[in-house]
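Deliverable D4.2, example record:
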Amino acid sequence: MSDRGTRTWRRATTEDAVALRDLERIASLTGLAHVFGELPYPDDDVLARWALLLDDPEVTVEVVEDDRGMVVLAAHDGATLRHLAVRPDYWSAGLGREGFLRAEAAGARRLWVLEANGRARGLYESLGWTPTGVTQECPWAPYPTEMEYAAP
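Output generated by the structure prediction step:
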């Protein structure tokens, strides 16, 4: 496990797209293997999505790094938490909660989460957010169900 000392958040730039994709990949492959199984990770599509998000002036992407790279990312706009990921060696260190609260303080009042992502749902529910009852299909194979959550 890497040093969990000082946590300095900074705004991500276009030069961070690959690192964002890589962090999201390791978090997804570790935490969502029960959903995506042996399917290949959609590296190119996820990288293209990060490039678009980083180029969108309404989206803020914030990160924390250690000597091995990114450990957490939080992407949000004025209304929605778009993405939150924590490197597995930092799970349970409070960084997911920090990223979530940063997005909430910036105005996020809704988010989408995989129905089968119990870890994330537990975090959101512990902070008072609840499912709205609205669902949609995830854009990545095998197209699991996503649930919308809203702030209290």
